[in-house]
């Protein structure tokens, strides 16, 4: 997950959000030493960046373990090149070393 530079907590506003107890516990488990509030901030920033078109994941070809042929069902952005993949366009799905499937343009793995 992309992590933004840290902002001092004194520069943040306090916001209350209601979460199911199980969700909060699972976030704590996933966050480990980072803390679940920092994890939630990272998740929210990633969402905002993806929706605004500003998101640029930092992946390298070495992190792609395998690729599968696919067809885009909606607009996607290649995680290696940033190239836009249009709906109904052929693409690849790359399996990362973390087990995530990420969108890849057809020429993104060419050496």
- Please report which band the strand proportion falls in: under 5%, 5-15%, 15-25%, 25-35%, 35-45% or over 45%: 15-25%
**Count of helical segments?**
2
| Low-confidence segments | none
Rg on CA atoms, Å: 17 Å
The order of strands across the largest sheet is: 1-4-5
Number-wise, the strands total 5
- How many strands, what sense, and barrel or not for the largest sheet? 3 strands, antiparallel
Structural class: alpha+beta
Instruction: Give average pLDDT, whole number.
Output: 86
Order of helices and strands: HHEEEEE
The end-to-end distance, rounded to whole angstroms, is 25 Å
Q: What share of the residues lie within helices?
A: 25-40%
What is the 3D form?
elongated
Structural account:
The protein has 111 residues and is an alpha+beta fold. Among the domains are: 21-52, no CATH class; 61-104, no CATH class. Helix content is 25%, strand content 21%. The chain has helices spanning 21-31, 36-52; strands at residues 64-71, 76-77, 84-85, 90-96, 101-104. Strands 1-4-5 form a three-stranded antiparallel β-sheet, with no helix packed on it.
